[in-house]
TrEMBL record:
Alphabetized Pfam families for the sequence: ROK
InterPro entries (UniProt xref): ATPase_NBD (IPR043129), ROK (IPR000600), WH-like_DNA-bd_sf (IPR036388), WH_DNA-bd_sf (IPR036390)
Protein name as annotated: NagC family transcriptional regulator
Signal peptide residues on this chain, from the entry's feature table: none
Entry similarity comment: Belongs to the ROK (NagC/XylR) family.
Organism annotation: Bifidobacterium dolichotidis
Length: 382
């Protein structure tokens, strides 16, 4: 996959414009250069200058700092097209020196933790199983990070802690998570005060979407749906994640499909999507059924209901790519085929090309890896 290139923007002329501070300019320059090198591209200093529009001095200053910080390393060389002159030194991301600690709070029955490299690839893993009530305890999270740090040969190269968490989040605070039973929990402040490492808190579906964008099959426009214990989604438009006025964009799991007769949801409404169509809800429906025909019919009906619920935002946002993460026994061929048929019937028109629904292929580490990447990105612009 090609790197996410910086997008051009129209100049804005303001009579009383505030001049950007040197630190703001430097952060912007770091972000531009990092975005070009991430995840596995290599460029010379001169190429980075041409691609970003930065001066040779500006590029050299940023690269020098990033090398010192263990973010970038000089790799091979590249000869000029003419074959004349000194070969240019190529720069790549350094995956050997810096680490993040990544935590996934969205899993059923356990908390996952990993130390990862700058690309979110785990090198050390730990997990803690939850009790019968499946409640996530703050003390357990702290202890898990402590144990992970103790396992690492040198924790001075940890540049951030990334946490993937279900629910509505803002500025490091879990505003509300029905899955965890949390409300107004300042998780980032708790971890930062304990470990003195920057903490990035990200919605688990947004984290998964980030991993899918960089390491999966997604383009710059995507509707990503995570269907497991609950249902959450994330939307990417022109490579920008949609957050929402209340930092709750993507919380489709709590849109009611049957507000009168549906089952009661922890959020207080009846008939929410995740009470009817989540993998855990569907497994309950399938549990006592021996008939393959009945089981297939339930999954097929779920696929149609799922697509019907998403047809409106698909048409509104003109998105052609829907990626669904979920267990293979639920998000299977039957589910995807019936959902595709419903999309074709409801959303396809002369104004909107076919929306394709597909299963995510990245595996169980998807939110863990996405949270690590978000922690790295936050460090880059710190």
């Amino acid at each position: 996959m090609s790197a996410l290139a910086p997008r051009a923007s129209l100049p804005i002329v303001m009579s009383n414009a505030v001049k950007a501070s040197p630190s703001d300019v430097r952060r912007k320059n770091r972000a531009l250069i990092f975005s070009l090198l991430f995840p596995d591209h290599q460029y010379s200093r001169a190429e980075l200058g041409r691609l970003t529009g930065l001066s040779r001095v500006a590029v050299s200053d940023v690269i020098s700092d990033m090398i010192d910080e263990g973010l970038v390393v000089e790799g091979g060389t590249e000869s000029s097209a003419s074959g004349k002159g000194k070969p240019a030194t190529l720069l790549v991301l350094d995956t050997t020196r810096t680490r993040t600690i990544s935590i996934d709070l969205s899993q059923d029955q356990l908390i996952q933790c990993a130390a990862t490299d700058i690309l979110g690839r785990p090198s050390h893993r730990m997990e803690v199983t939850l009790g019968p009530d499946n409640k996530v305890n703050l003390d357990a999270i702290v202890q898990l990070v402590e144990q992970m740090r103790a396992e690492l040969p040198d924790d001075h190269d940890i540049i951030g802690i990334g946490v993937a968490c279900p629910g509505a989040l803002k500025d490091g605070v879990v505003l509300e998570s029905t899955q965890l039973g949390w409300k107004n929990v300042d998780l980032a402040a708790l971890l930062e005060s304990r470990f003195h490492i920057p903490v990035t808190l990200v919605n688990d579906s947004v984290a998964a979407m980030t991993a899918e964008r960089y390491f999966g099959q997604a383009g710059p426009n995507l509707l990503f749906v995570k269907n497991d214990k609950g249902i959450g989604s994330a939307v990417l438009i022109n490579d920008e994640a949609v957050i929402g006025d209340n930092h709750a964009a993507g919380e489709i799991g709590h849109i009611s499909l049957d507000p009168v007769n549906g089952p009661l949801c922890p959020c207080g409404k009846r008939g929410c999507m995740e009470m009817l169509l989540s993998a855990s809800a569907l497994r309950e429906q399938l549990h006592d059924l021996d008939s393959i025909q009945q089981r297939t019919q339930i999954v097929a009906d779920a696929g149609r209901q799922f697509a019907s619920a998403l047809a409106m935002p698909i048409g509104l946002l003109d998105i052609s790519d829907v990626c669904v993460y979920g267990p293979a026994d639920i998000i299977n061929t039957t589910f995807l085929e019936t959902a595709q048929e419903q999309f074709d019937a409801m959303a396809r028109s002369q104004f909107h090309a076919r929306t394709v629904i597909r299963r995510c292929q990245l595996g169980a580490d998807i939110s863990l890896r996405g949270a690590a990447i978000e922690a790295v990105r936050a460090y880059i612009v710190h």
